[in-house]
Amino acid sequence: MTFPATVLTRARAAARPQVTGSVTGAMGLTLSVDGIRAAVGDLVEVNPGERPLLAEVVAVGRDRLTCMPLGTLSGVHAGAPVRATGMPLQVPVGEALLGRVLDGLGRPVDGGPPLGSRVSFVDLSSETPHALTRTRVEEPLTFGVRALDTLVPCGKGQRLGIFAGSGVGKSSLLAQITRGTDADVRVIGLIGERGREVREFLEENLGAEGMARTVVVVATSDEPPLVRLKAAFVATRIAEAFRDEGRDVLLLMDSITRTAMAQREVGLSAGEPPATRGYPPSVFAMMPQLLEKAGTGVTGSITGLYTVLVEGDDHNEPIADTARSILDGHIVLTRKLATVGHFPAIDVLESISRVATAVVPPAQMADAREVRRLMGALRDVRELIEIGAYQAGSDPLVDRARALAPTIEAFLQQPMGESTPAEEAWGWLQRIVRSA
Ligand SMILES: Nc1ncnc2c1ncn2[C@@H]1O[C@H](COP(=O)(O)OP(=O)(O)O)[C@@H](O)[C@H]1O
Ligand SMILES: [Mg+2]
């Protein structure tokens, strides 16, 4: 008889003699601990008992461990007892998580029943499916958002970035997608947002309808950086477990920028040098590690949507740049549209999906291309039109685009609470193209 690795890890941990070490110092984000042995990545408990402070071993010396806390260090004094747990962080996975809200370490925070035996626990580390065993992205995954499903179509297993400044509607769009998507399971990671924003997102944007078939993992901005960083991996690990059961999962991460900032804090406090614009090298190692976990597997898929903050509309900031190079497409939200009340504020012409032709039949692709061509023609002469320098009749394509502009606008704008099945959106798009 064979046992799963985690059962063995837990049994071994339980059978270990209980040795207690002690805290010898705490500085910045790190704790040094003497008197116990543990491996890098293992958890230790400071002040074991009722409410221990968990810390992760990040470096080991001959007889000293360097640990990083998964909680606040205040109140920890030199000499405080420390116990080795003998294993790394264990993450709950499984069907029973649907509808639940978890903290960055995978513990329920929604006041619901304990997870108990209805979930299984796994390590965070998982094998990223090898590129050659992954199936190709060739089936569409729909979001119920017209502008995206037709003009920036997404495939099962694709990873898309949502690039936007703050307050232009990222969270609202993620909620709209969560409610409208045809994915079997949705996993949302809310990383580094303020507590108030999280409440608003869960209660107003997502609502009960959005929570069904959804797991939410939250680490707000006031959590220690390591917890925020873990939360992104915990959400991803939960998605991986569903994928490995053959499910089509939609993983929504808000935001990858805040996750990178958490890694920066962790890296700098562990003594790494700042390299690119204040970000240490580990940030650029972490991003592909995290993002490559999404995608198709041997069975099932994780479609990843990652928001990227572009403050001051600096689209070349290093995190945005790195994200763009790893992802298979991007959705750009612009303040220009948001300020005139055009929601979702998607800049269609600046957004691309690299799998569009693989997931959309040629006839529909032709319609989409035509609408993009009309929008492009109009964009090119917008300034001329605004100053009254464009003469009707000088370009038939522009004239057609101007005539259709209100119809296209109506198609692209979609109220928060509205979801349009993809079939209907394609029919609508076809009518626009065939009219006039
Ligand atoms: N689809 C929409 N319809 C109407 N208003 C919207 C829509 N999406 C966003 N908004 C407006 O934009 C504001 C900011 O949206 P939010 O999703 O919180 O932005 P972000 O997450 O990018 O900071 C909302 O409070 C709302 O007023
Ligand atoms: Mg937001």
Automatic annotation (TrEMBL):
**Can you name a GO cellular component term?**
proton-transporting ATP synthase complex
Q: Which domain of life is it from?
A: Bacteria
**Entry's SMART domains?**
AAA (SM00382)
Which residue range or ranges hold the AAA+ ATPase domain? 156-337
- Database matches in InterPro entries: AAA+_ATPase, ATPase_a/bsu_AS, ATPase_alpha/beta_chains, ATPase_F1/V1/A1_a/bsu_N, ATPase_F1/V1/A1_a/bsu_nucl-bd, ATPase_T3SS_FliI/YscN, P-loop_NTPase, T3SS_ATPase_C
Q: Does the keyword Cell membrane apply?
A: yes
What are the record keywords, sorted? Answer: ATP synthesis, ATP-binding, Cell membrane, CF(1), Cytoplasm, Hydrogen ion transport, Ion transport, Membrane, Nucleotide-binding, Protein transport, Translocase, Transport
Which reaction is this enzyme known to catalyze?
Answer: ATP + H2O + cellular proteinSide 1 = ADP + phosphate + cellular proteinSide 2
What Gene3D superfamilies has UniProt attached to this entry? 3.40.50.12240
* Compartments in which it is found: Cytoplasm; Membrane
Gene Ontology terms, MF aspect? ATP binding; ATP hydrolysis activity; protein-exporting ATPase activity; proton-transporting ATP synthase activity, rotational mechanism
UniProt GO BP? protein secretion by the type III secretion system
Which proteins does it associate with, and in what oligomeric form? F-type ATPases have 2 components, CF(1) - the catalytic core - and CF(0) - the membrane proton channel. CF(1) has five subunits: alpha(3), beta(3), gamma(1), delta(1), epsilon(1). CF(0) has four main subunits: a(1), b(1), b'(1) and c(9-12).
Q: Which family does it belong to?
A: Belongs to the ATPase alpha/beta chains family.
Name of the protein in its database record: Flagellum-specific ATP synthase
Provide the species name.
Answer: Blastococcus tunisiensis
- What is the taxonomic lineage of the source species? Bacteria, Bacillati, Actinomycetota, Actinomycetes, Geodermatophilales
